[in-house]
């Protein structure tokens, strides 16, 4: 926590930002939702192998949402940026035609869940790709402009891009629409990141509207540890996961916490214990020796069994080729999963407690989204318990609230606040 706080403080100061692993990008979002937002808005949510287009109608406390999921083919994920954004524009055209709004010039909020240096509400410079994407020529470019060009060259689309935001910002906004006490948005899914409410005076050389007291800060905390700050926690298994990843040496914090990596950490541990003849009769099958064969859902499934019952565990093991498994093996394998899950939940909790203590509100809500938090049977409880142990005594009340569609509704709310 002390190391993370140091990096955050460095990230908030332009002089020390370059040397900080936690960049603390300004989002330029300074107005939390009032609950009075009205109108029709589009939202585009790009953050993984699928992306969504949404049509959201806001009317005070009511909202209606229609959405469609589109797949990004593997060759587009690692091709040219032109191909990627043309593909997105094509899908936008399909969706707006289907919903009969292609000529309405609707305002759009663009949730873009990759590290961005924002230079304004509708200008964001891509810092690097994560989560398996790699379109090199987009790095250093304004992704709003890339999308605008693709929309323009499509010729049949009339859309006004109002804002680009990170999924953490969307999560915070979406939860704040329901609960005005929301001060943090956190993602615990394929990746991990958080944004929080910061006082303007703590953002050195802030170049936005200084008449407003706050601004949301996108920490990009997944990169914490990239300067060695987490070496005292990392194991040989973490180092192996990192060395075989698409971005070795980057996103070290994320690789200890997020869904993209937990299954692989468990797989490496199981391979070690099988090789040492401690589980599964020492039989290493072909499947478990291949990288990526144990998905992170494996942990959720194995840990969902009631104590002493191994029905789900045996099903999960059958999927990776182990059909004859003793209860004792299941017990050991569950223990391995619990160790990996607990460490992830505790690290996420320590990072959240660092933000909570920094902000100093006596009561607050944290908006949480992401498949790991949503589907893991114990993640929420592990976090509630650990956060309560790590926050300052003066903080009386912290709630974790599951976000309902942050990256969709949150994007529409940011667009609405500007419209």
Short précis:
With 419 residues, the chain is of the alpha/beta class.
* Annotation, overall tally of beta strands: 13
Largest sheet: 6 strands, mixed
What number is the mean pLDDT?
A: 93
Proportion of residues in helical segments = 25-40%
Strand arrangement, largest sheet? 1-11-10-9-12-13
The share of residues in extended strands comes to 15-25%
Q: Radius of gyration in whole Å, from Cα?
A: 22 Å
Compute the number of helices. Answer: 14
- Termini separation: 39 Å
The topology string of helices and strands comes to HEEEEHHEEEHEHEEEHHHHHHEHHEH
Spans of 5+ residues with little confidence (pLDDT < 50)?
none
Q: Estimate the global geometry from the Cα principal axes.
A: globular
Relevant terms:
single chain; 419 residues; alpha/beta; 5-stranded mixed sheet; 14 helices
Task: Describe this structure as you would to a colleague.
The chain is built from 14 helices and 13 strands. It is of the alpha/beta class. Strands 1-11-10-9-12-13 form a six-stranded mixed β-sheet, with helices on both faces. Strands 4-3-2-5-8 form a five-stranded mixed β-sheet. Strands 6-7 form a two-stranded antiparallel ribbon. A hairpin with a 2-residue loop joins strand 6 and strand 7. The two termini are 39 Å apart.
């Amino acid at each position: 926590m002390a190391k993370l706080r140091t990096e955050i403080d460095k990230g908030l100061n332009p002089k020390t930002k370059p040397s900080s692993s936690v960049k603390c990008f300004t989002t330029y979002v300074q107005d939390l939702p009032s609950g009075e937002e009205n109108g029709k808005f589009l939202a585009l949510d790009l953050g993984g192998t699928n992306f969504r287009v949404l049509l959201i109608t806001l009317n005070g406390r009511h909202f209606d949402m229609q959405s469609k999921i589109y797949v990004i083919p593997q060759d587009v994920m690692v091709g040219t940026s032109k191909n990627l954004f043309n593909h997105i524009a094509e899908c936008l055209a399909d969706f707006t035609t289907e919903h009969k709004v292609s000529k309405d010039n609707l305002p759009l909020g663009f949730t873009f869940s990759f590290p961005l240096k924002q230079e304004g509400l509708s200008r964001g410079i891509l810092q690097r790709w994560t989560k398996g994407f790699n379109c090199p020529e987009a790095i250093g470019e304004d992704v709003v402009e890339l999308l605008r060009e693709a929309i323009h060259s499509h010729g049949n689309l009339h859309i006004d891009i109002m804002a680009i935001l990170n999924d953490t910002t969307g999560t915070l906004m979406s939860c704040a629409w329901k609960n005005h006490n929301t001060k943090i948005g956190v993602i615990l899914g394929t990746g991990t990141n958080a944004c929080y409410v910061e006082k303007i005076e703590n953002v050195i050389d802030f170049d936005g509207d200084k008449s407003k007291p706050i601004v949301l800060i996108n920490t990009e905390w997944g990169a914490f540890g990239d300067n060695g700050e987490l070496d005292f926690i990392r194991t040989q298994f973490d180092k192996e996961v990192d060395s075989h990843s698409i971005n070795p040496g980057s996103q070290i914090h994320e690789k200890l916490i997020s869904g993209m990596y937990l299954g692989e950490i468990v797989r490496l541990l199981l391979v070690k214990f099988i090789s040492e003849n401690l589980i599964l009769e020492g039989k290493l099958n072909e499947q478990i020796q291949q990288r990526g064969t144990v998905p992170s859902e494996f942990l959720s499934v194995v840990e969902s069994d009631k104590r002493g019952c191994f029905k789900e565990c045996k099903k999960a093991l059958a999927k990776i080729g182990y059909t004859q498994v003793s209860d004792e093996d299941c017990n050991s394998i569950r223990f391995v999963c619990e160790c990996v899950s607990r460490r992830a939940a505790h690290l996420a909790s320590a990072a959240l407690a660092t933000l909570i203590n920094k902000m100093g509100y006596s009561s607050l809500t944290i908006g949480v989204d992401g498949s790991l938090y949503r589907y893991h049977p114990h993640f929420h409880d592990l976090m509630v318990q650990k956060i309560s142990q790590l926050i300052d005594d003066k903080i009386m009340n912290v709630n974790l609230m599951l976000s309902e569609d942050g990256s969709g509704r949150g994007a529409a709310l940011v667009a609405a606040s500007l419209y």
